[in-house]
Amino acid sequence: MKIVSWNCHFELTMDKVNKLLNDKNFADADIYAIQECEEKDITPEIEKSLGQLQDSWYGDHKEYEWYHKGDLGIALFSNKYKIERIHKGKERFRYVVPYKVTDKRTLETFTLVHIWTKTKDREQNQNEDYLMFVLNAMKDPEYSQYLFPADNKVIWLGDFNWSAQLTSSFSKKKFKEFEQGISEKLSSAYHDFNHLALGDEKVRTFFDTKSRAYFNDYIFVGKHSFEIESALVGSKENWSNSDCNNTYGSDHCPVMVQLKLVK
């Protein structure tokens, strides 16, 4: 299976989709996981290009309520898989959203956790701890069962808004806590395939307008549950914000992985 994860930056348009699909590395994916899009963005033309929207767009409406940045959320597209949210109500942990994925032909299943890490109200979260909800979900006795299922057939993907490039002691501590928390169960597909440790990557996936760049976007897969056939990101070394924006119309470049489910 081929999976692409991408933060499309504020809105998903056909112009951006065409830019994404013009890169053959990101065309014809079995699953497209999109972060930072609005429900109204998802048109029949978008679905014709990316695949059928699965189990509706999901958003908690906090971005507009708190920051007036648009009613942004996440979406999954696929023609090959039926993808269903495991929790139908309000998620307890912001944008740490588990789904059941079923192959329509073989009926094989696995869990997909779509992640777009967000801070809570910044007045209550002065450290802007983007990993807070992920770490709290990992520690929760009930919710963690969906993140770490017994068969370990699980994929975590999305924009984690956190990376080894962050230099404060707080940031390094939180990233290490996250890395240790997943180390027995999950591995980054890009890093595993390219024989890299987290933080050793030379390319970046997020480029801000202040000439800073980070590796923020990941696809983690369950160890011993998936064979990683290929993995790459859309950027090149020494890219800038303009390189990424001109190529994909976003400040994030896409991430792709090709996997085989181990039976």
Layout of helices and strands, plus pairs?
Elements: E1 2-7, H1 14-22, E2 31-38, H2 44-50, H3 62-67, E3 72-77, E4 81-85, E5 96-103, E6 109-116, H4 132-139, H5 144-147, E7 154-159, H6 169-182, E8 186-188, H7 189-193, E9 206-207, E10 213-214, E11 217-222, E12 226-233, H8 241-248, E13 255-261
Parallel strand pairs: 1-2, 6-7
Antiparallel strand pairs: 1-13, 2-3, 4-5, 5-6, 7-11, 8-11, 9-10, 12-13
Shape: globular
- Radius of gyration, CA atoms, in whole angstroms: 17 Å
What are the low-pLDDT stretches, counting only 5+ consecutive residues below 50?
A: none
Sheet-strand content, in percent, reads 25-35%
Give the fraction of residues assigned to helices: 10-25%
Distance N to C terminus: 14 Å
Number of helices: 8
Q: Give a quick account of the main beta sheet: strands, pairing sense, barrel closure.
A: 6 strands, mixed
Number of strands: 13
